[in-house]
Write a structure and sequence with these properties.
This protein is α+β, with helices and mostly antiparallel strands and about 300 residues long. It has ten helices and 14 strands. The strands form four sheets. A five-stranded mixed beta sheet has the order 4-3-5-14-6, covered by helices on one side. A four-stranded mixed beta sheet has the order 8-11-7-12. Strand 3, helix 6 and strand 4 form a beta-alpha-beta unit. Helix 2 packs across helix 4 and helix 3 packs across helix 4. The longest helix is centred in the N-terminal third of the chain and has 26 residues.
């Protein structure tokens, strides 16, 4: 294939990546601001020029062929290279500017990131922030995220970043609830209590505790489940039962005496505890806007603001 053909197909390759990422010709067209027929023609032209079938189409879904998967990987590398060129130019701007897209788990975003964003926007008038609150696993490249906050003790390979704080979870209840119920001294006693669990999966009603070499998994029950920490906090404050909370959510209520930590000598284990990492794609040229926000947020979180 002539060099000119390589250049001509760059746009089709980019459209191909968009179709695979969105899983839909129509959604890809919407995001690209073109008609679905234009997207379809681009994919057909790419397949004809390459002489292979890239996508296996059905009335309801798209599936990559074996060759299509290999082509997709190469095309994403080309697209990332283009983004790196843009990032390189942005990093040379004397004044950081543009929009930083950030994603974080809901509780982390609401309680830790959002207050820092408010301070950041007040100090940096040339940078805007797009904050995505999502507990699901997001892809920095596919979802076009500049910075991803993730609770993990094993950061994904291929990304760079830094640990900014440790997320600890506790169980707690209000003095009102504990005054009318026995205070548990061992995790097994939680079976007799009303517990406010996360409720997203059956495993959320099996609380795990560890103290030294001792480990216990306790099936808990209660009249209320909620998959938002602020809701569970409010329910506990109103005396509905014992709940699990991140320490950063519970600390003010603990300090004021509105909540009392239960089983403080036991470590409460959950998938939402561990190191909070700030991650971004591995590239030599991090845009100035990303670097500025990263430095700002680390300073805020590490000093507890």
């Amino acid at each position: 294939m002539a060099t000119s053909k390589h250049i001509e197909l760059l746009q089709e390759m980019s459209i191909f990546v968009s179709v695979v990422n969105t899983g839909s010709f129509s959604e890809s067209a919407r995001q690209l601001g073109v008609s679905p027929s234009s997207v379809s023609r681009a994919i057909k032209q790419l397949e004809q020029q390459l002489g292979v079938c890239l996508l296996q189409r059905t009335t309801r879904s798209l599936r990559l062929s074996e060759t299509g998967r290999a082509v997709y990987e190469r095309c994403t590398q080309l697209e990332q290279a283009a983004k790196d060129v843009i990032s390189l130019c942005e990093s040379h701007h004397q004044t950081a500017q543009g929009t930083v897209k950030i994603a974080a788990p809901k509780a982390v975003a609401h309680t830790l990131i959002h207050p820092s964003v408010m301070a950041f926007l007040g100090e940096l008038p040339n940078i805007d922030v797009h904050l995505v609150l999502d507990d699901n696993a997001l892809d920095l490249i596919r979802d076009e995220i500049d910075i991803l906050f993730k609770i993990t003790n094993e950061p994904p390979q291929g990304l760079i970043g830094r640990s900014v704080m440790t997320i600890e979870h506790i169980v707690a209840a209000s003095p009102k609830y504990l005054a009318t119920h026995s205070i548990p001294t061992h995790p097994k006693e939680l079976i007799q209590h009303s517990c406010i669990a996360l409720g997203e999966t059956d495993a959320d009603a099996k609380w795990r505790f560890r103290k030294g070499t001792q480990k216990h998994t306790i099936p808990v029950n209660g009249r209320y489940k909620a998959n938002h920490t602020r809701v569970r906090l409010d329910a506990a404050l109103q005396g509905l039962g014992i709940t699990s909370l991140p320490m950063f959510v519970a600390k003010d209520a603990l300090a004021s005496g509105e909540l009392i930590q239960v089983l403080p000598e036991w470590q409460f284990e959950t998938n939402y505890s561990g190191e909070l990492w700030m991650l971004y794609p591995a590239t030599r040229h991090i845009p100035a806007k990303v670097s500025v926000f990263a430095d700002f947020i680390v300073q805020r979180l590490t000093r507890g603001c």
